[in-house]
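Homework help thread (please don't just give me the answer)

Our assignment gives two proteins as sequence + structure token strings and asks us to describe the second one. The first is just a warm-up. Here they are:
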Amino acid sequence: MEHGLTGRARTGLIGAATSLLKRVRDATYYRITPERLRESEERLRLLIEGVTDYAIFSINLDGTILFWNSGAEHVFGYSEAEVVGKHFSLMYTADAIAAGVPDTEIARAAEDGVALDEAWHVRRGGDLFYASGEMTRLKADADGNPRGFVKIAHDVTTRIEAFETVKRQALYDDLTQLPNRASFFELLERYIVRAKQEGDDRFAVILVDLDHFESINVSLGHVMADGLLVQVARLLERCVRTNDIVARLDTDRFAILLREVVEPEDAMRIVERIEETLEHSIYLDGFEIHTTASMGIAIGSSARDSAEDALRDADIAMYEAKARGRACHVVFDREMQDRAALRLNLQMDLRRAVARLEFFNEYQPIVSLERSMLVGFEALVRWNHPERGVVLPGEFIPEAESIGLIVQIDRWVLHEACRQLRAWQVQCGDDALTVSVNLSIKQFAHKNLLDDIREALEQNHLAAQSLKLEITETVFMEDFETISGTAALLRELGVELYIDDFGTGYSSLSRLTRLPLKVLKVDRIFVNQISGDPRGVEIARTIVTLAHNLGLVALAEGIETEVQLTTLVALGCEFGQGYWFSRPVGADVAETLIGHRLPLLVVQ
């Protein structure tokens, strides 16, 4: 369509008109644009209205709600008629309103263009939920005047609660809800530092070990045994004072930190109260259970050097109580430390084992869950004791660590695993096959670690990417700067790092992000919960998602059931290992598994 017919005359030398110029402008754009704008706005409105998982609403400059989509009604519980014309602070907690959070959010969005909001909010009816969102400043109108804001919010309560559960399980025992070993160690260490600073503050550490718990576990079953542990945990809490700390160290062993112990008699009164309480029977599901405990007490003061010393002395005293017939308590003294020298028998055996190379590796397959194919093995050390037969690492590794032999054992495991892997690669024609080796804290921090790894790779003509090193969360409790430096050098070498037992220790997520890790292993504790606890799936989902968000690959260990396997596959977990695929096996059996699909194979 033509529009805007205009013209002007062209004149000659004497001013007479000689011709006429005509200018024509196409105005079709100006007729269609308003219609298109209306159509576009309608499509946008329908799109926003169709979003139900996200709250989308607009407010004016003073916070009055102007628009409210169906997602906002779903998230906050208010209908559009209930909120339009009201201030948007109605969805904030009373504390947030008192602190001026809504006004601050508007001011920040007005100044910066956007304001992030992640906090607890109030739903219609008063229920609290955790929302994550952002408020965005609208573009100014044609005259340059500000027009208000749009806010988008999403209910993330489930994710936050699952993440909080993971964090809690890193610090607390899942069964009894008491602080776990790592948490207790940290608390005790801090208290000892304070005691040294103050100079006159005294404390006591009590180890409580239930007598004959294993027989209770066998005769009544795990469920009843777990119930007993929970009952004992509550009894211990009632026996101590408000500012004392009760923790569960392992299966049937508890620890108590008594703070502000003026005289040793203060600790004795607590111990006697525990003994008197345990004299009464405990009733569980109609069963009457009578239990006793062996207790070791270490009276501490500012002179004691570390949490490790206090726990060691209490442990020695506790074993002395067991040696005296159980169901009693013993206070640590130096003579007990001398008697603890009996452990030299085990230490001497270990030294002989290192000298004679009485160790061998078993290998547990690692499987790609997407392809159901074996991609590598985890090397697990065993001790072939000349008298006792095969000894599992749980029995001798702690002692090897305490006497400084763990570095030599780890070094042997590393070299043997590399030798065996290269033999498999050559024999099976599969250079992609990998092996992962567990490193203790001492080995990881050892000055010769990099040289040992280079030597193991070069001697066996093995590519660096074929070797994976597994470290636990406890590395974060060491000299982190040294640890991170070593990790960086390993990355340059091409060797990948796995973080093992994630969520079971006391770790810092901020430090986790600073290490050049490749794989985060989902601990068997969380894998086991997938089958028995509805929350277990969400916890596993959180850990797998955390791994992916950090740019890591997830590997689940301890897979034993089809439900666990299918759930982990659905969650996007890339790799797995466990009895569902195969138990740890000797090198000859492991070789027969290479190149096979394993989801239905369980090696007995």
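The one we have to describe:
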Amino acid sequence: MRIQDAAPRARGEMLVQLKPGVALEEMPFEVLDRLEVAGKQVLHVKTLQDEVALSQDPRVARAAPNHLYERASLRPDDLDERLWGLSNSGNPGADISAPEAWRITTGKRENGPIVAVLDTGIDFAHNDLQANLWTNTGEIPGNGIDDDGNGVIDDVHGFDATQNRGGGEAGGAHGTHCAGTIAAVGNNSLGVTGVNWEGRLMAVKIFPDDGDTCSAATILRAIDYADKNGARVTSNSWTGGGYNPFIKEAFENASALHVFAAGNDRSNNDQVPSYPSNLDIPNSVVVAASDRNDQIAFFSNYGPKTVDLAAPGHEILSTVPDQGYATFSGTSMACPHVAGVAALVASAYPEATNQQIKNRLLFGVDPVPAFAHNTASGGRLNAANAVKNDALPPAPPTDFLVRPRPAEVLVAWTPTGDDGWCGQPAAYELRVSPRPLGEEGALDEANLVEAGRSAEAGKQQRSLAHLMPSSQPRQVHVGLQLIDKVGNRSRLAESSVTLPACRMFFENDGWEATGSWTTQDLPGRPGVQSATGEATLTSRPIDLAASGDTTLYFETRHQLEPHYEGVTVEIALAGTDRWREVGRLEGDSHGWQIHRFPVHDFDGQTVQLRFRSSGAFELAGAAVTGLDPGSQLP
């Protein structure tokens, strides 16, 4: 028997040749087209049967899959073998799959997306960059007049924010090197190619010629210029300084997608912030560096919460001033790979929003073990996935089962593929809400209790979601969506279950507030208490005399500046001032989160809870639950 091949094929479609005299009406398929092959009729059909089943049908002469074919990958004549980040001949696959992406787009020079390179400037005379420089067509070069009225004189190819004037010519090699990775001219028989063969590079110089530091005021001028002059993407291969609220506000309110280097301190950005990458704004992507072996580069910062993905950043060949080429290493080199792919996406899909481009970058990564616990996406940049023309979302998960327990639900499902029922494993998001998820705004207000990558299609997957306990049985709504490489989402799988009552010792009652607390009712969450600055919320005394295995639960939503603002959660014996820290909340929760902490050290005693906030913080509820002493956990 011939073994079925594993080549790509159109799902649910076959090519079939019937035996003479067989009537179409009796066949178990729908005819999509009638083709002629060597004088014989071949049917293009839609069917649930596979090649083996149809071939064994006595009415069928021959059957074959409707295979899918692709154009050959494009390789420009200047794809130097040292450009391993684009195409890694030494370790195939440990690259961004640029030749495969170039089948879809090689970038766009005419009215294409502008990439602003906030750096040391760009060598405007470099032969491998000149054709891809952004040109301000409203400005007449060298006449000393602000021809286009944008407030800057002679800003033909960019802006020198260090001098607050037109220009942006290279004062060092760093910016030119980054620009070459983004958009060195491709297929011109010269030097190297960038991620974009064609592009529009805007020079925005933030570092002076005689130094390696710049001021926050300079950066604010740079962001403002890039935004007002149409930058679609900004590339930011710089770090240092601390948190600056004005820089955060400027980046967040600019219309571009901002790509940030994670830093080169070999440290965890979740624990020790690096700016601007730790600004935690929705229109940004933070990049760690990978090496040619698909490992995290030895110098690279990382962070499973604060660093989004990895990209090639070790021993990267690119352009430098005076018609030169050189190899540099750093997250500075990883950042322009991602900025370049973001520009490819914007070229192929001009109407894509920042979030849609970001989704394509993050959901389209190649999952790599080295980045599974070092980045939020768990993978390395894949340009081909990011630009893929894919309008087919995953099919909704099947066998969606939810089993309630006190203060938690066990969820099980069988994943489909990332293209309908077939393809690679998709990502998923599991959410829980006090109201039906189909109601307006409910999905956005739901708790995101887990996100990750599905198991292989057809293999059952399980998850345990912790929920807020209650003294009364209550209904919750659990939803699951699968997400493919370009951010297409499956239909929502949803189930409603009733949670059994828990033994409660405290249930969001009896608070004493000081500072900036207010109370409001939100859909599905009555009595939410909000703080906007310095504030303290202290509970009434809670008697745990009859409790064992006591657990504290609380539900929050917060947007706090890491290491500058936070919420400290504490517990103490009632009537004392010896508070013990249970946990500390920082950063942006990106929606509602449920927290669960064991406090069984206080079983049998009377305690109080305290929340001390120094920023934007909302508390939807807090609860203390436990078991009868001596009983067993269910």
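TA reply:
I won't write it for you, but here's a hint about the kind of observation we're looking for: The CA atoms of residues 182 and 340 lie 4 Å apart.
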